[in-house]
Description:
The structure holds two protein chains of two kinds.
Chain A: H1 8-11, H2 18-38, H3 41-58, H4 67-88, H5 94-99, H6 108-117, H7 120-133, H8 136-147, H9 152-159, H10 163-181
Helix pairs in contact in A: 2-3, 2-4, 3-4, 8-9, 8-10, 9-10
Chain B: H1 20-30, H2 34-40, H3 46-54, H4 60-64, E1 88-89, E2 103-109, E3 114-123, E4 126-130, E5 136-138, E6 146-149, E7 161-166, H5 167-171, E8 177-183, E9 190-194, E10 200-202, E11 204-205, E12 210-216, H6 219-222, E13 225-230, E14 235-240, E15 247-248, E16 254-260, E17 279-284, H7 291-294, E18 297-299, E19 306-312, E20 317-321, E21 327-330, E22 337-344, E23 351-355, E24 358-360, E25 363-368, E26 376-384, E27 393-398, E28 404-407, E29 410-411, E30 414-417
Parallel strand pairs in B: 19-29
Antiparallel strand pairs in B: 1-2, 2-3, 3-4, 3-6, 4-5, 7-8, 8-12, 9-10, 9-13, 11-12, 13-14, 15-16, 16-17, 17-18, 19-22, 20-21, 20-30, 22-26, 23-24, 23-27, 25-26, 27-28
Amino acid sequence: MAEPPQSALALSRRDPQAFATFYAEEAPRMVVFFARRVLDPEAALDLTAETFAAAFVSRRGFRGRDVRSARAWVRTIAERQLAAYLRKGYADRAVRTRLGVERPPATAEELQRVDELAALTGLRAAVARELLELPPGEREAVQLRVVDELEFGEVAARLDITEAAARQRVSRALRRLAARLRPLGEGEVTA
Amino acid sequence: MTAYEPPVGPPREPRIEDFPSLEAFGERLAAADVRRWRRGSGFGGPGVLLAAFVGTTGLALTAATGSPVPPFLRAEAPVVRPAPTSVRLSTVRAADPAGGLPWTVRVGSAGDGTRCVTVGQVRGERLGIETAEGRFEPLGPTADAQCGQIADGGAAAHAPVVGLRDVRAVSGRAGRFTVLFGVARPGTDRVRALLPNGRTVVASLAADGSFVALLPGEPRQAQPIVDVRRASAGATVRFDLARTLPDPDPRGRPWKLTAESDLGRGTGNRTVGATNATCFRVSPVPPFVGWDTKMPRACAVPRGTWAAVTRLRSGARGEFGIGRLLRPVDWAGLPTRTLVTIRVPGTRSLPTVRALGRAWALRRVGVAHIGGSRGDAVYMGLLPGAVEPADVQVSVQRGAKAPTAVPVRRRDLRERRGVRP
Lengths: 191, 421
């Protein structure tokens, strides 16, 4: 059986220019991946840039060969970037800063295109609708954490529960939202 | 709310040409000198970088669930936060009226002369908030910081970063009071709050200019006028928080929403909550340098009942306007927020704003008598950056006996982005 073709990422271990090919193929899907999770075109572009900057400097650590494993590898970096974004509220720029490479500002047209390609308008409406369907306690917890952007400590204080309970409540509510939105074709994006 | 309609047919596969900024970034990235980066790296290269990522998975559960609802929807880069290494606990203390831990502030800097201040209670050397159950919730080094520039020269020479915090809202305890806190320039020798009942409260003040005081009642009852005196400069700056109570921001940064005549500054015509107002403005408290000319203003607002909703993204520059005039706006390093401006007939109609399943209270910033109109109320408010304009629903109560909520027509805020004011 023929071996699958070598991915551009694998080639880029020795040839940095090959990374440009990998980037051109994968970055657009990554924008959609991020946009549907953060619902913010600008943040999605920033997260994509930082993810590929991290992938670029780490590419020699990629041990795979084919396209499938390359996608999985960069997806792992992306999920870690996303986790950092969720924790801090803004996209990291550490790797870009170290590299001295910046992404030019996006135009309104580019942001609109992200919105369209990720179908964010409908997604936002669906999220808002499903929020209303959550049990009141969970809805309040999500609103305090997500909409009001409070720390978990303050969410707990407002709800008069422990911080651990607040984390659990928010997490449970988000899982419930994800489950409700998935049948609508939301919540999962294949990269 | 309309039901979600999944896109018809498979979505088009995105291409790199769809994203010019990313395309340019890719070209720069491929040309980057990685070896130089590795040599100059203070943290040991990619292996360590990936190891550092592992430490960020505390909230990865949310990402792993595939939930499209992010814990933080805002895009606030660049976020104004104090550098973690710069924060220091102030020596000022104010006794808690309910017998809890004393109140103090933590001061830090965010570069470019920006000072940051966080209020809280102190236990040992840690800053936090004591909950209603008596638990101490520590505040991280950059948590809840309010930042502003305390610049040399001009009217902002002694302007402090000042804020009010409603304690009941924080801790849930029964006794309600307000913490006045902030940081002024070093050399400030008195910070004093004048209360509506004539009482004066002098704040505890440290040499670095940080201060804290406890005032009775919630902020809207306390209504302090704050005097900040710097005797060596022979000047006192007064913050009339009684007349322009800051509106609490979702993240704690207070804002000021004011109405004013458009006859020019410095002529004594600026009024708050005024009749005959022609402009309505939103600005942060404390004022950033240059805030007064670059914050959003709605001038010569058109007649009728309408709502304008726009998202002011961090770093946005351009011209925005409602009605005839476009006004320059420089949102600079301020956090992303969604600005709602509503005009409703008369002064008794009360608009309701809903977004993401939550109702938002807007302040009436003034009454418009423009072009001989009868005097309509203008409301403004800032919603979190998480709220997209499309999410915002505005209604107004109609009918005296059995009021019903009637949707308000939306107007688009005209804008020309990218124009440097």
